[in-house]
Amino acid sequence: SPMSRKIILDCDPGHDDALAIMLAVASPELELLGVTTTYGNVGLDDTTRNALQILELCGSHVSVYRGASLPLVRNRISAEFVHGKSGLEGPALPLPSRGAETTRATDFIIQSVLDHPHEVTLCPIGAMTNVATAMRLEPRIVPLIAEVVLMGGGTELGNWTPAAEFNILCDPHAAHIIFSSSANVTMFGLNATHQALAMSQHIAAIRAGGNRSSLVAAELLEFFKVAYHQRYGYEGPALHDPCVIAYLIQPDLFTLEGMNVTVDINEGVSFGRTVCDIYNVLNLSENARVAMKVDADGYFDLIAKRLAMLP
Ligand code: BDR
Ligand code: CA
After folding, report:
1. How far does residue 301's CA lie from ligand 1's centre (Å)?
2. In the chain, % of residues over pLDDT 70
3. Which residue, 303, 152, 141, is CA-closest to 214?
4. This model's pTM is above 0.90
5. What is the pLDDT of residues 9-45, one digit of tens each?
6. What is the sign of the dihedral through the CA atoms of 298, 123, 274 and 160?
7. How far apart are the CA of 1 and the centre of ligand 1, in A?
8. Ligand 1 site, CB within 6 A
9. Sorting pLDDT into bands at 50, 70 and 90, what band is 2?
10. Is residue 252's pLDDT more than 70?
11. How far apart are CA 167 and CA 281, in angstroms?
12. What is the strand order of the sheet 64-66 is part of?
């Protein structure tokens, strides 16, 4: 529709990425221009296949563009422990019947922003390498990006080191490029996404949708739940990535605060930490809006309702 907001979803599916894709496809408020993939939870070949499998499950023909397979400077890390060997363990999904485009993710991002100035929202929910690289390849896009709404970082704890969140830790230098870019950045970090735990009643409500996509989503959450319980002792898995999409559809589910955010790119114990100046003690300019509160029941309600509309 003419009023829908153009987005590019840059992801590393990934259980929560898969639900973010489903939510985007199911939401008429959003025009999903393309899905770009990155290494992250698992390697690029796996995340790309997973993205294609999920789109096919949802009956979507949106194009998939392969992106980075390695970070800019550091070595690659991955999260098989949480997402399984394929990156999407749990449900049995058929192999995709189509492949990714030959155009690279960075070229697709650059061209989309140039073709639709001030209209394209970039949604990185994996390693930040593709968006940062696009900004470096073609700096003219930076002021033309409508918004960058990302999942990564946090105002307090990390989940991959005590200080750093996984997506930022995958490529702290790339995250640093984005936060210091002057683009309009909104951050969904762990302080917010850890309020969005998929408890049994939320998973049951999704399963109750009864359609294929809802059943797969419920199975993904059941697998994710075991991994999260083992690793973090949580009663339900934190459903990080779909927060970005839910915010674009229903912003009143979230409370945001503007502040200065700096990524620690020093290779010490806080490497990859998003240092968030909540009290503005440094008196620097605000470069990000940071999600602080989530209405978890409203969030899962939205997800269950939308996923029920898919095939
Ligand atoms: C982030 O890391 C990944 O494992 C998830 O998909 C999410 O994007 C959470 O730290
Ligand atoms: Ca992710």
Report:
1. 21
2. 99
3. 303
4. yes
5. 999 999 999 999 999 999 999 999 999 999 999 999 9
6. positive
7. 30
8. 14, 16-17, 41, 79, 82, 125-126, 151, 159, 165-167, 240-241
9. low
10. yes
11. 26
12. 64-66, 30-37, 5-11, 120-124, 147-151, 185-188, 288-294, 254-259
Distance 240 CA to ligand 2 centre (A): 8
Closest to 169 in 3D by CA, of 270, 62, 43, 280 = 270
What are the two backbone dihedrals, phi and then psi, of residue 32, each rounded to the nearest 5 degrees? -80, 100
